[in-house]
Amino acid sequence: MLSTALDSSIINAAITQYWRVSVVELTTSTQSDVVELARAGSIQAGHVLAAEYQSAGRGRLARNFEAPKSTALLFSFYIEPQRSRDEWGWLPLLAGTSVAQVLSKYQAQVKWPNDILIKEKKVSGLIAEATDKGVVIGVGINVGMHTSELPVPTATSLLIEGERELTRNQLIAQFLEKFKENYTHWDQGSDEIAHAYQVLSATIGREVRVEYPDGRVEIALAKAIGNSGELILDNGSHVQAGDIVHLR
């Protein structure tokens, strides 16, 4: 069931008309494909591209994302927020919250900014890129991977966590509808997603080591999330980008 082929007709029948999902067997990266279309003005908000396999999948901080064919749910989608561009930093956190909510049966949590953890192991990651008019968000969820297929020992999959019945068609439909619900409220001015994120956060209240892209390292207590989605530490630092390591 977990590796049942993606089928755009099944997915589109299960979601609202805001979304338009297409599926490809192979691409370099769904994120690169959708970003290119968005920058060319060739798509509208609600466009979704899913792939059975990516030959050069992309993750946060210019990392690669690899998964054997049909073992992961890999897709990117385009939206055009109406809220101030200064607030778009919340969108990847909103997407991460939506993934965690869909995976609530596993007590999934969000590690700042948007990694999804089950029992402290990563099951999903996201990437977000702004274009002239909107944002492209890419999502990868480890669905049917066996232990030997995991990219790192600190990862997990829904299969490993005991899932047997859920299909990727069902999972992407559930995510898109949950994201749309959260996103619509947020885009209309509601900030209730901040509370939902904090409830699901595996980071807030913990001592963390921050590894910045420029090589700096900082250890402090993760205290809160700022108005732009940044992580606020108890020493006053506002972390915009970096790797977070939970220390306790």
Structure, explained:
Strands 1-2-5-9-8-7-6 form a seven-stranded mixed beta sheet, with helices on both faces. It has a five-stranded antiparallel beta sheet with strand order 13-12-11-10-14, with no helix packed on it. The chain has two domains: 8-199, 2-Layer Sandwich (BirA Bifunctional Protein, domain 2), CATH 3.30.930; 203-246, SH3 type barrels (Roll). The N and C termini lie far apart (37 Å). Helix 3 (90-102) packs across helix 4 (168-187) and helix 3 (90-102) crosses helix 5. A hairpin with a 3-residue loop joins strand 6 and strand 7. It has helices at 8-13, 30-39, 90-102, 168-187, 192-200, and strands at 20-27, 47-54, 57-58, 64-65, 72-79, 109-111, 115-118, 121-130, 135-142, 207-211, 217-225, 231-233, 238-239, 243-246. The protein is α+β, with helices and mostly antiparallel strands and 248 residues long. Helices cover 23% and strands 31% of the residues. The radius of gyration is 17 Å and the shape is globular. The protein contains five helices and 14 strands.
